[in-house]
Design brief:
412 residues; two-stranded antiparallel ribbon; 12 helices
């Protein structure tokens, strides 16, 4: 994998330190109707203004909870050309190819192009962007702090749609679902990394041959390696809550991407159903309680009391303390993975500000609970922290659809 220094050195060779000399202005993407020299997006009227607008297109379960697509792929991208209007037109036309080829639906394709810290540093705008380079956020992890120019986020209920899309945009395929491929992201970017995964009942069982989870632990009903359903609608921020409301980056959102590996042998072999419910939610929550949870998970705000009484705390009761005005502040689009041959999660979250993500992670750390009981440590008896390790972190900004090509940049 390319390092951040490698990417910057390569771009310096391409354009030198005066790479922005041809840029006449830094523009507010909320005022730009697409890319200079390119007609308006013909698909725009049938698509959300945001790139992350899934809510109206998703199916729901019997309780009304949204059901995310089953298969996911994130392509982490390195910029191979100087920013220019020509490059912006290529990127925009490539994204429009996806919109022409697939419906904006789970059985079609959801897609989002987000821009990373390397890109904003490249155009001299990192300090004014809504993102910053990732940092270490716990005392128990030493993640690889990664930086990229961009990320292409893809999801669909049809796994082959993701594979074919990558082949069309970065390979040599000349058509995509019957649509001619005349413009490729691969002429602007190279793929520096790839994150793949899945979400849905039975899919973890199909992938339980990897390290980190007993092969016979999972059933056809389990949507995640922990066995629990994630995504009840009242435990998630709404799309409006994570949308940036004003300023240069209005209509977009920030995106955090972490890779967490899971070691769930203890979870499945030494814990019974009551133990697992306690660690996931709260120690006074039973499996029977969980079965009754519909669109929400009750939050008693008693985590300190639980630490003192039980010598352990649950994951949800810690994270729920990060709510504002009673509402979640992070929209999770995480998914299971077996990347690297180990069970894990790619934790993809959207939030108005990365400060919201950091606030949520600090609540999850539970450091404030160690003084409540000797059995509660930075990892042990502290929700899910005993079972997960953060391997990497990266931050991105996802512009609104009409500003998704080279935000803040235009040629003179």
């Amino acid at each position: 994998m390319r390092t951040r220094r490698d990417v910057l050195q390569r771009l310096a060779v391409l354009s030198g330190t005066a790479g922005l000399a041809g840029c006449s202005r830094m523009l507010d993407p909320s005022t730009v109707g697409g890319v200079p020299g390119l007609a308006a997006n013909p698909h725009a009227e049938s698509l959300p203004e945001t790139q992350f607008g899934h809510a109206d297109a998703l199916r729901t379960d019997g309780d009304g909870n949204p059901i995310q697509p089953q298969y996911h792929r994130v392509l982490l991208l390195a910029l191979d050309v100087e920013p220019s209007n020509d490059a912006a037109r290529t990127v925009e036309r490539s994204m429009r190819t996806l919109e022409a080829a697939f419906d904006w639906a789970p059985d079609g394709l959801f897609h989002m192009l987000a821009w990373g810290t390397d890109y904003f540093e490249r155009v001299g705008a990192l300090d004014r962007s809504p993102i910053e380079r990732p940092t270490v956020l716990s005392r128990v992890d030493e993640p690889d702090l990664q930086s990229y120019d961009a990320a292409l986020v893809l999801s669909s209920d049809t796994q082959s749609h993701l594979i074919r899309t990558e082949n069309a945009l970065f390979g040599s395929a000349d058509e995509l679902n019957g649509e001619p491929v005349e413009h490729r992201l691969g002429t602007v970017f190279s793929v520096a990394g790839r994150r793949t995964g899945f979400m849905g009942a039975g899919l973890p069982k199909e992938h339980a041959h990897v390290e980190g989870v007993p092969s016979d632990a999972l059933s056809d009903d389990h949507p995640m390696f922990t066995g629990f359903f994630s995504g009840r609608k009242r435990t998630q921020a709404g799309e409006d809550r994570v949308r940036i409301g004003d300023g240069d980056f209005a209509g977009g959102t920030t995106m955090h991407l972490s890779h967490l590996t899971e070691n769930l042998d203890l979870w499945w072999d030494s814990f019974d159903a009551a133990d697992r419910a306690g660690r996931m939610f709260a120690p006074d929550v039973s499996p029977e309680d969980v079965a009754e949870f519909g669109t929400d998970v009750p939050f008693a705000n008693a985590v300190r009391e639980h630490a003192r009484e039980y010598g352990e705390v649950g994951h949800h009761e810690k994270v729920a303390r990060a709510r504002e005005d009673g509402e979640p502040i992070v929209l999770r689009r995480d998914f299971n993975t077996v990347d690297g041959g180990q069970a894990g999660v790619h934790f993809l979250s959207l939030q108005r500000s990365l400060a919201d993500f950091r606030k949520t992670r600090r609540a999850m750390n539970g450091w404030y609970l160690r003084d409540e009981h000797a059995q509660v440590t930075d990892r042990k008896n502290n929700g899910l922290l005993e079972f997960i390790t953060v391997q990497s972190r990266a931050n991105f900004y996802a512009p609104p659809r009409n500003g998704r090509s080279f935000p803040l940049f235009t040629d003179g």
